[in-house]
């Protein structure tokens, strides 16, 4: 017996499902299982179809993506069909696993899809590694120091240290440090750094 399976996602129109049913009937499907379900939702009709099939039957679909969600999922379904002595026919690919050529084509499709996925994952890992390396050498831009000009401007306008910190999203201590650094003469900056290095206070 030729058993047809049709599926569309929940966001696709009913016409898409009807078109699949029409093509399956034209291809000789004697029993049809059809459903509308998301790509991650349960597929009860597919499970029913797999349970209904018997040795010598043929499962027919219009496209590969109507049947399987991934390479692993395809392998699982094909394994179940082979264990039951059922062949698979995919109209859109002209593929029929009851023939040696059809089996070879299906294996090639699965291998290519798996290869592409592994290449994609490898590129993703390389991209992440490069980003981490760049971050390690470039480092983060100091948030408070980058706002020195804004701190000085707000201080000149008469804002309190607390108001400046709140407005710019930095700590009050950072505001004090920035203003102190800006206002100290060059020789005082050097002296302050020297005293700080030995654990003393400039005051």
TrEMBL record:
Question: By its UniProt entry, which InterPro entries does this protein fall under?
Answer: Homeodomain-like_sf, Recombinase_CS, Resolv_N, Resolvase-like_N_sf, Resolvase_HTH_dom, SSR_resolvase
| Key words of the record | DNA integration, DNA recombination, DNA-binding
Q: Name one GO molecular function term.
A: DNA strand exchange activity
User: Known SMART domains for this protein?
Assistant: Resolvase
Full protein name: Resolvase domain protein
- Protein family (similarity comment): Belongs to the site-specific recombinase resolvase family.
Q: Name one Pfam family in it.
A: Resolvase
The source's superkingdom equals Bacteria
Task: Report the residue ranges that make up the Resolvase/invertase-type recombinase catalytic domain in this protein.
Answer: 1-135
Q: Which GO terms describe its biological process?
A: DNA integration
Q: Which residues form the active site?
A: 9 (o-(5'-phospho-dna)-serine intermediate)
């Amino acid at each position: 017996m030729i058993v047809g399976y049709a599926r569309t996602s929940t966001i696709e129109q009913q016409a898409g499902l009807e078109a699949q049913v029409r093509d399956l009937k034209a291809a000789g499907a004697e029993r049809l299982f059809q459903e509308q379900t998301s790509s991650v939702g349960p597929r009860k009709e597919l499970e029913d179809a797999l349970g209904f099939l018997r040795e010598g039957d043929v499962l027919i679909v219009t496209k590969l993506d109507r049947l399987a969600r991934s390479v692993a999922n395809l392998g699982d379904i094909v394994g179940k069909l082979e264990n039951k002595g059922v062949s698979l026919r995919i109209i859109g690919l002209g593929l029929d696993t009851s023939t040696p050529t059809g089996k070879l084509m299906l294996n090639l499709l699965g291998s290519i899809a798996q290869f592409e996925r592994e290449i994609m994952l490898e590129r993703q890992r390389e991209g992440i590694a490069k980003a981490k390396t760049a971050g390690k050498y470039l480092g983060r831009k100091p948030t408070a120091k980058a706002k020195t000009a804004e701190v000085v401007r707000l201080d000149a306008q008469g804002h309190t240290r607390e108001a400046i910190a709140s407005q710019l999203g930095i700590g009050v201590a950072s505001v004090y440090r920035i203003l102190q650094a800006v206002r100290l003469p060059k020789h005082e900056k050097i002296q302050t750094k020297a005293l700080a290095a030995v654990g003393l206070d400039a005051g």
